[in-house]
Amino acid sequence: QVQLVESGGGLVQAGGSLRLSCAASGRIFSINRMGWYRQAPGKQRESVAAITSGGTTNYADSVKGRFTISRDNAKNTVYLQMNSLKPEDTAVYYCNVEVVGAGVGNYWGQGTQVTVSS
Question: With left for phi above 0 and alpha for psi between -120 and 50, is residue 23 left, alpha or beta?
């Protein structure tokens, strides 16, 4: 079994920064894709950013130039550095990882609230 623990959410003023972390533990041989999603009230969950095992990244157009995704393979951890935050970034942020262990599994974090005040 694999567990994901997220941290780093909170309340910040517009223009501020936050850094989210998501640490995976359990039966892990390796981790393929790692990503961050978000869900605002009344909206569908959307992809924010993702990073492959080789370090290739992609971002939603709405966060390009403001957010940076990175990973520490030794710690099985993915990060999301969020700068120049806007009120429309307010959402619950979830990490998602594809783990190679006994098999290949896709796992979600518990979610962390990010609130950006204007």
Answer: beta
- Give which of 50, 35, 43, 59 is closest to 92, Cα–Cα: 43
Structure tokens at 53: 């095992």
Q: Which two tokens stand for residue 104?
A: 């290949």
CB within 8 Å of 94: residues ≥ 6 apart: 6, 36, 37, 38, 39, 45, 108, 109, 110, 111, 112
Calculate what percentage of the chain has a pLDDT beyond 70: 100
The beta strand positions in the chain, using DSSP E, are 2-7, 10-13, 18-26, 30-39, 46-51, 57-59, 67-72, 77-82, 91-100, 104-108, 112-117
In eight-state DSSP terms, residue 87 is G
Question: Which of 45, 51, 80, 46 is closest to 66 using CA atoms?
Answer: 80
What is the pLDDT averaged over residues 15-37?
A: 96
Q: Which residue shows structure tokens 């993702």?
A: 50
